[in-house]
Amino acid sequence: MNDPHYRYCRYEVEGPLLTLTIDRPEVLNAFHPDAHREFSDAFDRYAVDPGLRVAIVTGAGEKAFCAGTDLKALSTTGDHTKPRTGFAGITHRFELWKPLIAAVNGLCLGGGMEILAACDLGVAAAHAEFGLPEPRVGLAALGGGLLQRLPRQIGMKDAMALVLALSQ
């Protein structure tokens, strides 16, 4: 069943499985403030629902998992608001004990990498591409998932090498 009160987040439950789909394929599933709020709410619901045991996060379409921040919306509104739970409502959510799986089905850039790092497991399609384009637009990868979690998971030097390679 899909929850109709979300506009940018498909919330689909099948038994104990929740599938959250970033539903903005026209902008490569990039996030703006309303999308952040919807995903934060969706993760809140997942956390407290005893019937849900695992969640998969993916992107609508085949082109992109998530291209990060919607820079066009940001340049138009100047609004870079995110919930207290971080980018996509997940990167600052350290207390979530239920498993999250990222199903990367295309471009995974910037904030998409932050979402991936905040998940417990990532699975990528053969055509998936990864990158951190923030330096090219004068930003840093500070969404809370990648730079904070990656060094703890793979060690500081390996994390630094990976982040620098992805930033080229």
UniProtKB/TrEMBL annotation:
| GO MF annotations, alphabetized | catalytic activity
Q: Which Pfam families match?
A: ECH_1 (PF00378)
According to the record, the segments passing through the membrane are none
Record's InterPro entries? ClpP/crotonase-like_dom_sf, Enoyl-CoA_hydra/iso
GO terms in the biological process aspect are:
fatty acid beta-oxidation
Q: Which SUPFAM superfamilies match?
A: ClpP/crotonase
Q: What is this protein called?
A: Enoyl-CoA hydratase-related protein
Give the species this sequence originates from.
Paraburkholderia tagetis
